[in-house]
Automatic annotation (TrEMBL):
Record domain Acyl-CoA thioesterase 2 C-terminal: where: 222-309
Gene Ontology BP, a term: acyl-CoA metabolic process
A molecular function GO annotation: palmitoyl-(protein) hydrolase activity
UniProt cross-references to InterPro entries, sorted A to Z: Acyl-CoA_hotdog (IPR042171), Acyl_CoA_thio (IPR003703), HotDog_dom_sf (IPR029069), TesB_ACOT8-like_N (IPR049449), TesB_C (IPR025652)
Keywords on record: Hydrolase
Protein name, UniProt field: Acyl-CoA thioesterase II
Length: 329
């Protein structure tokens, strides 16, 4: 597998880049990345890289239909990750792949992908495409700006350690591969919410030509293959699920003793175009005794159409002096 071009440093393309070791075996081209204020590899990295590894082992006219994965151990961001792709079934219209991620021979992550052959949409009477009225973005604020305003408020009640941790998140929001527009009360924990909405857009270029595929023998990049849009949306489908939980309960951002993603699922409804701003709706579907099921719906802010639905199971235990958050069973 050749190298078409070197991905821009710090870009999502560089974060997800893989080198091929064997027909069905790949290794991270760069060190895995830990999220700000964390010391383990971001789960979205393994989701995106397991998809990229699958793409390298299959026909280019297949695109993902669904994915289910489990986070078995916290990944070490100082050690490369090796991905083994196992073909489970290769049919004419559907292909199934299982991808296992290892560090030092320890299984840390496993994903099961279903791919369908890309085809023309059926007649309109057989389509049920979700659409939404996207709100005015003026009601939101740039994530890093919003967080710094909150941290500069002398009455926010945050400890020095908490401010330092949240400062690293502000820097990541400034310099990360994507730009966020968040609700203006996202960090303050002013009240409980039933739903979280925000906008996200990639900072780096990505092709929107749906027929574009990588040249034979070359690496898949964000400019030579439209399937890179699936990589990007898969990576970000896991982002900020855990950080958004306090928002639903009117709690400060860093108000938990344990915060762990257990599993993650994605259902792909339409081909995404990550060159557009994406609008998200996140809900905390069920929760009890620290176990949460969260759901996110991703809409293209231009076409207003739903692109994916993602679900995540999480364990979050809060620091509650008087009472724990209300259950939602």
């Amino acid at each position: 597998m050749g190298i078409f071009r070197k991905p821009p440093a710090g870009s999502l393309e560089a974060i997800l880049d893989l080198n091929q070791l064997a027909v069905n075996k790949f290794i991270t081209a760069n060190r895995p990345v830990a999220p700000a204020a964390s010391n383990v590899t971001f789960g979205g990295t393994m989701v995106g890289q397991s998809l990229l590894a699958s793409f390298y082992t299959m026909s280019e006219d297949f695109v993902p239909a669904s994915m289910h994965c489990s986070f078995l151990m916290g990944g070490d961001p100082t050690i490369p990750i090796i991905y083994n792709v196992e073909p489970l079934r290769e049919g004419r219209n559907f292909t199934h792949k299982q991808v296992k991620a290892f560090q030092d021979d320890k299984l840390i992550f496993i994903s099961n992908w279903v791919f369908s052959r890309q085809r023309e949409l059926g007649p309109p009477n057989l389509q049920n495409v979700g659409r939404i009225a996207v709100p005015d973005k003026d009601k939101f604020d740039v994530g890093s700006t919003l967080l710094r305003k909150y941290l500069d408020d002398p009455n926010n009640g945050e400890s020095k350690e908490s401010k330092e941790a949240q400062g690293t998140i502000a820097t990541a929001l400034d310099k990360g591969p994507a730009k966020y527009w968040l609700p203006k009360d996202f960090f303050s924990g002013e009240r409980k919410h039933e739903e979280l909405n925000y906008f996200i857009k990639l900072r780096n270029s990505i092709t929107n030509n749906e027929s574009l595929r990588r040249p034979a023998g070359e690496k898949l990049t964000f400019l030579n293959d439209h399937r890179a849009n699936y990589l990007a949306i898969s990576y970000y489908s896991d982002a900020y699920f855990l950080l958004s939980l306090p928002y639903f309960y009117g709690l400060p951002l860093f108000n938990c003793k344990i915060s762990v993603s257990m599993d993650h699922s994605i259902y792909f409804h339409q081909s995404p175009s990550m060159s557009n701003e994406m609008y998200l709706r996140i809900t905390n579907e069920e929760s009890n005794d620290g176990l949460h099921v969260m759901k996110s719906e991703w809409y293209d802010s231009v076409t207003k159409e739903k692109k994916i639905t993602a679900l995540q199971g999480a364990l979050v235990v809060y620091n509650m002096d008087d009472e724990k958050p209300d259950a939602k069973l």
